[in-house]
Prior knowledge:
This is Peptidyl-prolyl cis-trans isomerase. The protein is α+β, with helices and mostly antiparallel strands. It contains 3 helices and 5 strands, in the order H-E-E-E-H-E-E-H.
Amino acid sequence: MTEITRVPLQPVKKGSLSKIWVGALALALAGVGVAYAAMPAQVHVKTLTKGHGPSPTTEDMVLINYKGTLPDGKVFDEAKQVPMELTGVIPGFSTALQKMQAGGKYTVDIPSELAYGDKGQGEIAPNTDLTFEIELLDFRSKAEIEQQQRMMQQMMQMQQMQGGAPGAPEAPSE
Length: 174
């Protein structure tokens, strides 16, 4: 039988144990710092006026009022009663809308990585964080909107087949 080589343990010097714990704590804190730095950018949504009901999903269209500002406070975009698809906007804007409720007003901070990133857009410089004031007026699913559009088209076709809209004056004959 072969014998396993034994290495005698040396006694730990007085005060060395606390140095080992300090070193372990420093490594743990460094690990937390690296993990924090590697965290993906996040959108921050602050509720100014609470909304009601469910929140929109990526399958919905929203109707909003909004104002977008740069870090220096300059307004770069503003509009009222704008319909938008959640899939047709910058990722941070879509993420923020999915945290809102109809009737609510919000302030949204979008980091550049979830906005226009290192490319920029128009007067928005590369790597610029954006702030939006958003009022979510209402939202509907794309399926609901498509159904409403089909109904409107059917109504218009029926009116055309009947010779125009009810109550509409007839064209004068010559």
